[in-house]
Amino acid sequence: PTQPNLRQVHLIHGELLDELTGAGFRVGPGVMGENVTTRGIDLLGLPRGARLRIGPEAIVEITGLRNPCSQLDDYQRG
């Protein structure tokens, strides 16, 4: 309990899901492995070390980008 929680949390902006849906992909919140879907936050523009408050107690620190992997092709090619 005295150690910080350093588990990874995957964030995706809902606007990306909108763009992918518009391009014909069948996606929705949680489908690409994200834990949190945001709206109105420029996640890609946030610098490392930026902190986001989620709810009354959680604070998430941005540590880097997650690159897409081939596992997404298992869900839908492309």
What composes the largest sheet?
2 strands, parallel
Global mean pLDDT: 85
The low-confidence runs, each spanning 5 or more residues with pLDDT under 50, are: none
What's the SSE pattern? EHEEEH
Write a structural description.
By secondary structure, the protein is an alpha+beta fold. Helices cover 18% and strands 18% of the residues. The protein has 2 helices and 4 strands.
Strand and helix map with partners:
Blueprint (H helix, E strand, L loop, with lengths): L10 E3 H9 L13 E3 L12 E4 L3 E4 L9 H5 L3
Parallel strand pairs: 1-2
Antiparallel strand pairs: 3-4
Describe this protein with a few key phrases.
alpha+beta; 2 helices; two-stranded antiparallel sheet; 78 residues; two-stranded parallel sheet; 4 strands
Short overview:
The protein is about 20% helix and about 20% strand.
